[in-house]
Design the sequence.
């Protein structure tokens, strides 16, 4: 694609244009991000959109209360159309502002707390070992289909309390809903998203009623049922409705899945291409947590966050008018030379590493502790290998605004 035009003195020309859906950007956005950052603090997106590419500005805007994440049905209708999936996106915690967001986050945060992530760690390690066992015995191994895909699904089963026999169908339905984040959906995909929202609502409603009939469990639904009924960590004014519980657990099913799956695949692909970095993990296992943060920074699974201006916001020599969409480029912020030394280089020991892959402000990812627990378990085990080698070309899953792999075939060499 042609290079982005540079920005002359402010006010003389429009800022450069950025197209999130350009096939070249979807395949590899980082060269275009670099051009955007060099051109100035602000770019133009689609109609009524401004694009923010630099780290300091993205970090500041993520916490700026002049921007809202609460979008009307009109925003979702072009992608998903009217129906259950559109209603769902409007009600989940991701798209709420205070005070509703504050109440939901306080209660949801206690149900998906760092303490719960610690409680789940032994189960996570067991699942990782089970998934890696065939490859350790010499079986063909694909980091996506054999590890990155089943791991978060099985962990979410433990978290939410889903029977093992239901996981495959729940996972398929969650993926149908996740596709609704794409820019363009065909009629079949739209219908699948609407159908799957209805199916998952019904399934989770049944589980919620079962938890209410047999209280005291440690899984997420049990804890949220207690919050709904005022029997645990609800103060009488902070109550969750059944609809809020179901919608936000449904959101957890695919939100927790996306980040973990993509980062597992990215980290495995990176380590197979950079044996020196794998050797560092093998020699210094204490680097595993910083390696996880580096994989999250290097290729953020979710590349953009959308907000809209509530009031006029002077920025970059312009005024972002109320109602204008502000596209925060997390992937570009994570590669900003002003913040990160040699950002195109993988350094499993990088410190500090204040990446934006989990977002920021009051919308910082509520499941970050659980995602980190899963990722640390994976790369603790991967870091012990004698070698991790490509067994064929890695294949990208191309979706605007996301970075993921469809396949990462590898050869595992145990220590």
Sequence:
């Amino acid at each position: 694609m042609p290079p982005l035009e540079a920005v002359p003195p402010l006010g003389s020309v429009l800022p450069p244009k950025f197209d999130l859906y350009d096939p070249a950007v979807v395949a590899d956005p980082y060269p275009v991000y670099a051009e955007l950052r060099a051109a100035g603090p602000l770019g133009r997106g689609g109609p009524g959109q401004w694009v923010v590419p630099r780290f300091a500005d993205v970090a500041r805007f993520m916490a700026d209360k002049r921007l809202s994440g609460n979008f009307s049905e009109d925003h979702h209708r072009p992608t998903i159309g009217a129906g259950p999936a559109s209603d769902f996106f409007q009600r989940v915690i991701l798209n709420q502002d205070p005070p509703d967001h504050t109440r939901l986050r306080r209660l949801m945060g206690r149900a998906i707390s760092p303490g719960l992530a610690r409680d789940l760690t032994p189960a996570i390690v067991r699942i990782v070992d089970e998934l890696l066992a065939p490859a350790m015995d010499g079986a063909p191994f694909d980091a996506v289909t054999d590890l990155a895909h089943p791991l978060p699904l099985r962990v979410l089963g433990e978290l939410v309390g889903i029977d093992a026999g239901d996981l495959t169908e729940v996972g398929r339905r969650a993926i149908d809903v996740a596709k609704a984040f794409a820019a363009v959906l065909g009629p079949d995909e739209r219908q699948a998203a609407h159908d799957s929202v209805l199916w998952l609502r019904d399934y989770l409603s049944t589980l919620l009623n079962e938890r209410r009939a047999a209280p005291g469990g440690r899984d997420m639904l049990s804890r949220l049922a207690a919050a709904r009924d005022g029997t645990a960590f609800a103060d009488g004014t902070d109550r969750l409705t059944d609809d809020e519980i179901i919608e936000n657990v449904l959101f957890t099913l695919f939100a927790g899945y996306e980040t973990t799956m993509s980062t597992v695949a990215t980290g495995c692909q990176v380590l197979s291409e950079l044996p020196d970095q794998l050797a560092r993990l093998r020699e210094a296992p204490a680097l595993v947590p910083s390696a996880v943060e580096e994989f999250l920074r290097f290729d953020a699974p979710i590349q953009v966050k959308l907000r809209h201006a509530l009031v006029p916001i002077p920025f970059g020599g312009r005024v972002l008018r109320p109602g204008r969409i502000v596209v925060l480029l997390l992937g570009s912020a994570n590669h900003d030379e002003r913040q990160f030394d040699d950002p195109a280089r993988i350094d499993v020991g990088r410190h500090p590493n204040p990446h934006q892959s989990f977002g920021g402000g009051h919308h910082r990812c509520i499941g970050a502790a659980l995602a980190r627990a899963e990722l640390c378990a994976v790369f603790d085990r991967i870091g012990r290998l004698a070698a991790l080698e490509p067994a064929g070309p890695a294949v990208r899953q191309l979706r605007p605004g996301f970075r993921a792999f469809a396949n990462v075939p590898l050869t595992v060499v145990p220590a």
Confidence is low (pLDDT under 50) at residues 1-11. Residues 115 and 369 are 9 Å apart (CA to CA). The first helix runs from residue 23 to 27. The chain is about 50% helix and 10% strand.
